Amino acid sequence: MGNGIVENLKFVWECILQVIYSDDEKCILCKSEIFDKECICLECKKRMKLCKDSFDIEFNKIKISAYSVSYYSGIMMELILKLKYKSNFKAGETIANYMISLIEENNIKFDFITYIPMNKVALKKRGYNQSKYLAQIISDALKIPIIHCLEKTQETKDQIGLNYSERWKNMCQCFKFVSNRVNIKNKKILIVDDVITTGATAFYCAYELIKNGSGKIIILTGAKSKV
Ligand SMILES: [Zn+2]
């Protein structure tokens, strides 16, 4: 897997750069001084608007429950943009920590963690999958195995400018379950993503797992965005 090696090397290089150029005692958002081990300051934390309740994504009479840490605005949006487009892994760590708190506060139980995959071209361009990065931190912290069981097989058209039903149609058949010797039969699986918009992406990933015998699926994202 040549692409995998390139992806990993890029990831390692980004990590090295972050160690060299880290400004440890500064908030990654507002650059004010921090006196604990956190990546964002108390003032920025106060500006984070947390979502408390779960919500359902429903399509073709299949209902999947989902949670998001916050709305896609303010602090959370800044963190996601930094993780996604600036390779800022400290921002990713902060998002993942919020996700872990949400899991613990809601007492969400699951057997495996997985994530929304990227297609090979997009992955090569970015060098890492931000959702996989978040999922890995959660997996390490909660000691629940991460499984790599979904593949994005088709390039999706940009969702911008598409209406609700076009977005759902755009996502259909983009994802494929890949057996990886892990038996998902009746297993409860958490799917991690950075942002949820219509829910179509997460739904079709969940659907692939359900079709292949999984138990309950729960979706967890850093943010939710209204269409
Ligand atoms: Zn700050």
TrEMBL record:
Protein name (record): ComF family protein
Q: Which organism is it from?
A: Clostridium thailandense
The organism's lineage is: Bacteria, Bacillati, Bacillota, Clostridia, Eubacteriales
